[in-house]
Design a protein that fits this description.
The protein is α/β, with parallel strands linked by helices and 250 residues long. The longest helix is centred in the middle third of the chain and has 28 residues. The chain binds NADPH dihydro-nicotinamide-adenine-dinucleotide phosphate (NDP).
């Protein structure tokens, strides 16, 4: 049985999406807004955020908040700005989709440049930690908050040449488990990870240049799971690792 979200599933909720300018994040931000959420669009390229912002404004939900920020340079003061910006504009926060990531080079560990290793960890892990830490006080005040961290097949089993990307996704899974455990007594907040699997995006094309993108699912096809985890139907589900490909409704 497939999941059929109601039209107003996310009505009244404020949701942050990182990497909202392109790929899966862009589609997730649009989909959350289509289901009634106010979205905070975090991403690196202002023009891409403006374009998704224009798209969302057309169907008349609340105007999104755009936060152009390079997560490669994200630090304590960026965290404070993000938290204050959301508090000032919306006053509350109910969802956080950690989606932005970079791939880094696909080379053996023996040849992996340290600078690239650090960069991948900064974007995929350290920035994710800082964003989480700064937004937790707001999320904990919500009646029903959901945090989704984006994993990968190589975040569950390491494979040759996936280097820092794979290690960063294992770290992401660990962050999810630690956080879910720390918050387990708080019934109003859940934390889960989601592996979208091979998806027709720029990152996938970079990872598999020989592959025909037409053979892959689009981000739109994954949205039922994103909506399920972000919305009230997943209340009480926490500390779990989800895979789009094998997901069945409980
Ligand atoms: P894309 O590369 O298509 O999009 C990633 C988004 O993240 C872009 O909007 C990009 O911004 C943003 N981003 C990257 N670096 C930064 C940064 N330093 N600061 C701010 N924003 C940044 O990726 P996908 O949509 O394919 O992937 C989304 C998530 O899904 C990732 O976490 C990925 O690891 C995961 N995933 C994807 C799979 C796939 O097959 N596509 C498979 C398994 C997991 P900009 O547009 O400006 O570059």
């Amino acid at each position: 049985m497939s999941y059929v979200p109601t039209e107003d599933l996310l009505k009244g909720r404020v949701i942050v999406v990182t990497g909202a300018g392109d790929g899966i994040g862009r589609v997730a931000a649009r989909t959350f807004a289509q289901h009634g959420a106010s979205v905070v669009l975090v991403g690196r390229t202002r023009s891409k955020l403006e374009s998704i912002n224009d798209e969302i404004k057309q169907f008349g939900s609340t105007s999104p908040l755009i936060v152009p920020v390079d997560l490669a340079r994200f630090d304590d003061s960026s965290s404070t700005d993000l938290q204050n910006g959301i508090r000032d504009v919306f006053g509350h926060l109910d969802g956080l989709l950690h989606n932005a990531s970079i791939l880094g080079p696909k080379v053996p560990i023996e040849n992996y440049p340290y600078q690239d290793w650090q960069q991948v960890f900064q974007v995929n892990v350290h920035a994710q930690f800082l964003v989480t830490q700064s937004l937790l006080p707001l999320l904990r005040q919500s009646d029903d908050a959901s945090v989704i961290l984006t994993s990968s097949g190589v975040g569950r089993r390491g494979r040759a040449f996936w280097g820092a990307y794979s290690a960063s996704k294992f770290a992401t899974e660990s962050l999810m488990e630690v956080l879910a455990d720390e918050l387990s007594s708080e019934k109003n907040i859940r934390v889960n990870s989601l592996n979208p699997g091979g998806t027709r995006t720029t990152m996938r094309a970079r990872a598999y240049p020989e592959e025909d993108p037409a053979t892959l699912p689009t981000p739109e096809e994954h949205m039922p799971l994103y909506l399920y985890l972000m919305g009230p139907d997943s209340r009480g589900t926490t500390g779990q690792k989800f895979d789009v490909i094998s997901w069945n409704l409980p």
